[in-house]
Fold these 2 entries.
Entry 1:
Amino acid sequence: MKNLGRAIRQALRQRFTIIGIILSSLVVAFFWGANIGAVYPFVEVVVQNKSMHDWARERVAESEKASAVAKQKIHELEQQQDGTENAQSLNNKKNEIDALRLRIEAEQKVIATTKSLQPYIERYLPNDAFQTLVLIASFLVVGTIIKNLFLVANMLLVQRFSEMTTLELRNQVFAHTMKMGLGVFNKNRTGDLMSRFTGDIAAIGSTIAFLFGRALREPLKAAVCLLGALWVSWQLMLFSFMVAPLALILTYVLAKSIKRANRRSMEESSQFFRRLLQSFSGIAAVKANTMEKYECNRFRRTTREIYRKSMKIMFYHSLTKFSDEVLGMVVVSISILAGGYLVLNQETHLFGLAMTTRPMNLASLLMFYGFLIGASDPLRKLSGFVNTAQSGAAAADRIYPLLDRKPAIIEKENPIPAKNLAQPIVFDGVNFHYDKKEPVLRDINLKILCGETLAIVGPNGCGKTTLVNLIPRFYDPVDGEVRLGRSPFYDLCIQDLRRRIGIVTQQTILFDDTVLNNIRYGSPRATDEEVFAAAKKAYAHDFIMQKLEHGYDTNVGESGGRLSGGQKQRLSLARIILRDPQIMILDEATSQIDPESEQLIHKVLEKFIKDRTTFIITHRLSTLSLADRILVMNEGQIIDVGSHEELASRCELYQKLYQVSFKESA
Ligand code: ADP
């Protein structure tokens, strides 16, 4: 609930909207009660073929008569006192006289209020039963129109309130995830993130819409009716609501179960997203290993779980409906029995308890019932309250911890601007691990001179990518330091640093946008001419102009799906050339592409990396020839550093790698 509270506080910043919501809810509630109140004049006046004028006169006369009778009775009782009675009977008599006095007081009150109303009734209301009926009907129609106009306004305001909250929350969570380290975006977690963005935030939105819509409006409507019922007879009302505490306890118990069931169901649906994403993105592997059946079975198990969880939620949900309705009916039955008894017998007491001071008439009782029904309908509409609030609470419990998570990479306060990266890069005793149990980099000591090209080779999983990922500070070393000249990377401004580093990875990242905008990504201020020049340098201009339908304005499709591997690589090289970085990182950039593209890319790199500090992770001999030095890694450690010839003659691991992969690609 704490996290849902944060969502609500965030929503409440829209002050004017919430004021509008409260005001419109109040108007709706008032007219709801007022329409029910119209039962009274209908039963008391119109049905008995009276006008309001007659009603007022008769009411005064009746009360005066009742008052006189009571006075007479008091007089008689006082006369009867002859001193021979016992204490018990004296006490009884005293109580009776007290009750009669109260009755007289009540009758006097009725006389006074009716008399004060009389001049207005006579001046403004018709002196005819049918015309009074017309007036009541008109009031009902106009009241309903006003009520519904405000209801429309209320619903629109509530929708705006919740939409603005989800919009803001989505933007906020997105901005926050953009700040998070790469670890958050592992394949497994992307599905989970996506389900948080869609399902969870939407659930918070609907909970807020419910809390400030129905959950505000309906109780107000109920409150107006309950006030009305209290006004008719508060004692009868309390008596009818004897079972309310039981209802509260039941609701509380069910609420807890619903929250638990909701949380499990959300976990299940994020698992569902994860499975989907894994199966779709790994579809090639699924097919190659003929695992379709296995995947289908696994997926079936997940959907089955979702089904079971949904059924469980529905079960609790229907239980709340069941208990609400049964208990509601118990309340109504108690009040029908009690009220009926009082009116039929013209009694004021029930089991010795005073329910009213003067006997109720049928109109008051019907109005009382009207108010009870008027209160029960809104309360019935709230039966989904617990369920909705709990699902919102569970969703908020998944969203806010995400917002609270500190990014793994934090920029120091007052970082040093890193405007010039043309300095040596030093790894000094660097150790790193993702998981404490598995060291990934061990005691790395290395100095790369400014403008030098360093190739990194080693078996898969030995830590090459991790090593180069420390340079743009995608991760920080666990131990030791990476320095630019004399400044630790930790002290540098991250944005400055990343802006001046160009990274080409195996997976080229293109966005669903035009070729022009894809090249310009990261250098928003570059002119079209600069983009063309960069594309020319990357040998991309020709294929863009000749092979793509709309040239630079061609949309590359999602993830550049319409381009070949080599073309994508050249576009991403053009993007980097345009940014003109001082440090280049190429991570197996030339794998899986056609020989023509490979040759072209080789030519681009040859020129482009000349004056830049460059790290190349590769298995290809042709690319290795670009390097000034080659670093051999194994199991997170540096085994050797040297030229191709040196390593080929002295490093056993290099010889092995050379035999296995370099030759293949050479
Ligand atoms: P290489 O580039 O040499 O193939 P990597 O640097 O990618 O090696 O990986 C080194 C080790 O770290 C591997 O065992 C890999 O499974 C692990 N690893 C890589 N990235 C992550 C990550 N984000 N979270 C946890 N472990 C990782």
Note: Residues 292-344 form the longest helix (53 residues).
Entry 2:
Amino acid sequence: MKSYRMYINGEWVESCRGTYFPVHDPSTEEIIAEVPDANAQDVDRAVAAARAAFDSGPWSQSTAQDRGRLLFRLAQKVRDETPRLAELESRNCGKPIVESEYDMADVATCFEYYGGLATKVLGHVNPVPANALSLSLREPVGVAGQIIPWNYPLLMAAWKLAPALAAGCACVLKPAEQTPLTALEMAQWFEEVGLPPGVVNIITGFGETAGAPLVQHPQVNKIAFTGSAAVGKQIVKMAADTVKRVTLELGGKSPNIFFADADFEAAIDGALFGVFINQGEVCSAGSRILVERTIYSRFLEAMTEKAGRIKLGPPLERETKMGPLVSKEQYERVNSYVEIGKKEAKLAIGGSRPASPARGYYVAPTIFYDVDNSARIAREEIFGPVAAVIPFNNETEAIRLANDTPYGLAAAVWSRDIFKVFRVVKALRAGVVWVNHMQPTYVEAPWGGYKQSGFGRELGPWGIEEYLETKQVHINLDEQPIGWY
Ligand code: NAP
Ligand code: MG
């Protein structure tokens, strides 16, 4: 078991109280590490370090080129160390190693993208009707508090850190209590790649005792949060007292819509991939599978047959397509929804713990059908390998069902009829819409939700906007007095 410290002001430190909490491998249920249990006092230390770095340290004098190069160096470290990082990620959160390797490539690409974008942040000359020069300057928002979940631990850290650093902000990052390890490993290279002390601080701790003080801290200018809707709502309220900038990515109950004229084989694959990738622990999971009635039985049968062949196993085995859920708590949560589902709908497959592997928080791929869109398993985010299949009769009904949800993160539509596809794309109330695919995500394109899936956008040029303020500068060129009085 490895004992980690956390990273504040360029140093590896214990929590002020000197207490630690355990980190598990969900495939063996064993403790693999311990990390400091940060509290409000530790948050104060981290915020003070970030504040000093932003207000007066060398970071405040850094050029966009400096920051860009630094992000490229960090990307290269991640690429060089991918085997080690991917293995640790899989051990800590349970996802199949092949998926972790994709995640590490995406982490590096994210740092590269924002490394390049750092030098493309442009101001503006405003055409004011005066003998004056009017400018809009883009400036970093200041100290950013960043709170992330456990489903894509290092990737979520990269989505938050990369744009913030490109913009010139200083950061205090709090990983999820379950999955702090890869972020701490990455912090080992911060000094080497040229990050001055205090620019990125990583505090390990729990939401209530470390996350909340970060959100409430008067010296923090912005909070970027990804996680559950319940916590997101608390964050908005907590941030109100200090009028922080807030961006929220809160998951959803995304519809994956299949019309009868879709390519059948591709559709079956797309339905399964959409909801079961990463054990279904995906904010954009296509957890409501809407299928046109004329293909409904055949679709359900083919999907069930193929779901039965998904290979569950230890995350580090390369053939594994589904690992355990991240924690005992999540395992119990998902199983409680499976029990609810058994009362609300019909079960096609799954619904219990698989016989093997014998240990670990595994849940078999589970498909419920004839689900009513008002059922709890169709309305609430389960965040596990549980699909709700819902029939529909026509395009109008498909759109109505798809939009009948408090969420609006993502959606997908499958058909070969481009007129129908574009009508549906326009009608869907979601921040991300895929056509004839579900889940591919690229750093170049915006990511974020409508409705209760949150606000603000990550990735692409939109992502850096959320870390920038706009300053209007008016330069009078008229040397005469105003002459008003
Ligand atoms: P969560 O409770 O929303 O946690 C997300 C992050 O917020 C974690 O770092 C968490 O800390 C922190 N946090 C919790 N309470 C907080 C508070 N009062 N103030 C500030 N920060 C706080 O999500 P979870 O417990 O990991 O998972 C619960 C459910 O959330 C899942 O079943 C799923 O439905 C949803 N979820 C959604 C996403 C997404 O991408 N949209 C991701 C993960 C989970 P600690 O967990 O470290 O205590
Ligand atoms: Mg939690």
Note: The radius of gyration is 24 Å.
